[in-house]
Amino acid sequence: MTHLINQWQRPARVKVLQTSRSLINPLSNPTNGFDVHPNHADPDHMHALITAFELPHEPIFMQQVHGNQVIEYLEPPKAHFDVQADACFTRLPDVICAVMTADCLPVIMTDTEGSFVAAVHCGWRSLYANILSQTLEAINPQHEVLVWFGPCILQDQYEVDESFVVNYLKRHPDANNAFTEIIDHNSLASLYTMAEIQLQNLGIKQIQQSMECTYLNKQYYSWRENSTPHRMGTMAWIKPCQP
């Protein structure tokens, strides 16, 4: 069900929301499932989301292109797809950073002071292109970074071919643990492990994972299952300090 993330240990002023096919709870499924993709999102459903979770504004989504571009929000974004990027961050309160997924790995970042939030769309192409290091380089955090991995397709369901593994390991030779043994020219890949290895190499130690599989859990959309055009949203924002 769509819910605020509470299990991730971070400053209380940092809020994180993970949507699912259910708008508020498993009994509240819209007819076709709750969908954040701007091309088919229902305005009434989005209004209900904003109201139920006290969002500071409507979530606005980037044009995600499976690359390594990073955008900083210096004010609330105005329109969907205004920028082509796969990561966004802000240091401002009441500005939502959001990504869409349907099997790819959504990553949320902040630090121990809650001085920023970032949302990163990590498909294998973005991970191959070092989207996580690009994001941290753009932020230049001054305090310990905290990371949360949202729902994605898990390794047992993510089969890739041998050329995929060989190509990825040429650029990331320390990522062997992200793949199972190649059998009959195929392997199983872990987006979690790909991302975790990259972050650990950057000195990031505080990483928590949802461990929910978008392919198996019918509360989520899965592109690999049925090429769905629908998307979940993963978003974070900073609450203003109370006077």
TrEMBL record:
<keyword id="KW-0479">Metal-binding</keyword>
<dbReference type="Pfam" id="PF02578">
    <property type="entry name" value="Cu-oxidase_4"/>
</dbReference>
<dbReference type="GO" id="GO:0005507">
    <property type="term" value="F:copper ion binding"/>
</dbReference>
<keyword id="KW-0808">Transferase</keyword>
<comment type="similarity">
    <text>Belongs to the purine nucleoside phosphorylase YfiH/LACC1 family.</text>
</comment>
<keyword id="KW-0862">Zinc</keyword>
<keyword id="KW-0378">Hydrolase</keyword>
<dbReference type="InterPro" id="IPR003730">
    <property type="entry name" value="Cu_polyphenol_OxRdtase"/>
</dbReference>
<protein>
    <recommendedName>
        <fullName>Purine nucleoside phosphorylase</fullName>
    </recommendedName>
</protein>
<dbReference type="InterPro" id="IPR038371">
    <property type="entry name" value="Cu_polyphenol_OxRdtase_sf"/>
</dbReference>
<dbReference type="GO" id="GO:0016787">
    <property type="term" value="F:hydrolase activity"/>
</dbReference>
<dbReference type="InterPro" id="IPR011324">
    <property type="entry name" value="Cytotoxic_necrot_fac-like_cat"/>
</dbReference>
<dbReference type="GO" id="GO:0017061">
    <property type="term" value="F:S-methyl-5-thioadenosine phosphorylase activity"/>
</dbReference>
